[in-house]
């Protein structure tokens, strides 16, 4: 398996942590019906669609999900190379009914599933390059295949084609629960992104969000941005981000508690003697320290649970 599968080669790396965050975000974006099928597309070639698809598939498999990754880019499929498995037979052979030797192919989509080195992760390659990929994807056979695959695993991830060039991915978006769009930092044009979004929604497809890929990485920090709905999540090194968030929340909570104490005790403290005021301040400080200690313990427990996942 190639080194670009970072989530498999280096599961403790910052990039792997980002993919686990993406995994969680995609699941939360489709909480009502549950996530059983996901399309990953892009606006144009070379934006990292297949890289995101493969690493996200591994992230789901590492969480205990049985995952089938389907390479639907029958023009330039890459997943066979990434996972180092035979390219044929694949999806095109199933849909066309013709195997790589020109004979009739197996009519059962399950017979095209290949094992990978990753536990719980299976792959269906793109297969031979057909003359009519779009026509094959719009067939009833493709719709039936999607439903059949969903019955035998927890999640089916489809690595689609760039949506601004061909209609293949737009067609697939009708069959799946939701779609994730991959874009490239400072490269993807907003007009192209809006067109892809509009095309998918016009056929009844749903969009979970946009992944901004190829953000510059330095040796000191990893930086990535994910856009979901109307909010943007920016993350540096995930571990340091969690620590910063905890520190900020603690400080904010202390300030709020102090304001409450000041407002409720302002009149009372003006009526007491100096010795009593000193005692009151000591009690207030002790109370705040206890509150802060309690909050830190709660956040540490949350972090432990998050690391175990």
CATH architecture tag of the largest domain:
3-Layer(aba) Sandwich
Low-confidence regions? 219-240
Strand order of the largest sheet: 3-4-2-5-1-6-7-8-9
Number of helices: 11
Would you tell me the overall average pLDDT?
A: 79
Any idea what the shape is?
globular
| Euclidean distance between termini CA atoms | 24 Å
Query: Into which percent range does the helicity of residues fall?
Result: 40-55%
The largest sheet, given as strand count, sense and whether it forms a barrel, is: 9 strands, mixed
Q: What's the helix-strand series?
A: HHEHEHHEEHHEHEHEEEHH
What structural category characterises the helix and strand content? alpha/beta
CATH superfamily of the largest domain: P-loop containing nucleotide triphosphate hydrolases
How would you describe this structure to a colleague?
By secondary structure, the chain is α/β, with parallel strands linked by helices. It has two domains: 6-236, Rossmann fold; 240-308. 48% of the residues lie in helices and 16% in strands. It contains eleven helices and nine strands. A nine-stranded mixed beta sheet has the order 3-4-2-5-1-6-7-8-9, sandwiched between helices. The longest helix is centred in the last third of the chain and has 35 residues, at 274-308. The chain starts with 5 loop residues before the first helix and ends with a helix.
What can be said about this structure in brief?
The protein has 11 helices and 9 strands.
Characteristics:
309 residues; single chain; alpha/beta; 9-stranded mixed sheet; Rossmann fold; 2 domains
């Amino acid at each position: 398996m190639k080194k670009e599968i970072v989530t498999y080669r280096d599961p403790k790396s910052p990039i792997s942590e980002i993919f686990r965050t993406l995994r969680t975000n995609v699941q939360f974006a489709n909480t009502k019906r549950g996530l059983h099928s996901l399309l990953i597309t892009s606006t144009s070639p070379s934006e990292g669609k297949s890289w995101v698809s493969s690493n996200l598939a591994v992230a789901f498999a590492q969480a205990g999900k049985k995952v089938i990754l389907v390479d639907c880019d029958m023009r330039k499929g890459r997943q066979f190379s990434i996972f180092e498995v035979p390219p044929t037979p694949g999806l095109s052979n199933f849909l066309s009914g013709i195997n790589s030797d020109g004979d009739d192919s197996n009519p059962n989509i399950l017979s095209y599933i290949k094992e990978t080195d990753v536990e719980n992760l299976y792959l269906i390659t793109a297969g031979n390059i057909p003359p009519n990929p779009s026509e094959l994807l719009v067939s009833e056979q493709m719709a039936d295949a999607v439903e059949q695959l969903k019955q035998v695993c927890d999640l089916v991830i489809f690595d689609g084609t760039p949506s601004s060039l061909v209609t293949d991915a737009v067609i697939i978006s009708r069959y799946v629960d939701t779609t994730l769009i991959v874009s490239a930092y400072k490269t993807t044009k907003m007009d192209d992104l809006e067109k892809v979004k509009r095309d998918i929604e016009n056929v009844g497809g749903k969009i979970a969000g946009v992944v901004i890929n190829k953000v510059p990485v330095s040796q000191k920090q990893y930086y990535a941005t994910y856009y979901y709905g109307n909010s943007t999540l920016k993350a540096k090194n995930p571990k340091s981000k969690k620590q910063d968030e905890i520190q900020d929340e603690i400080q904010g909570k202390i300030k709020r508690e102090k304001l409450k104490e000041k407002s409720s005790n302002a009149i009372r403290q003006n009526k007491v003697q100096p010795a009593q005021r000193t005692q009151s301040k000591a009690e207030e400080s002790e109370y705040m320290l206890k509150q802060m200690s309690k909050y830190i313990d709660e956040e540490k427990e949350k972090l432990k649970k998050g690391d175990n996942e």
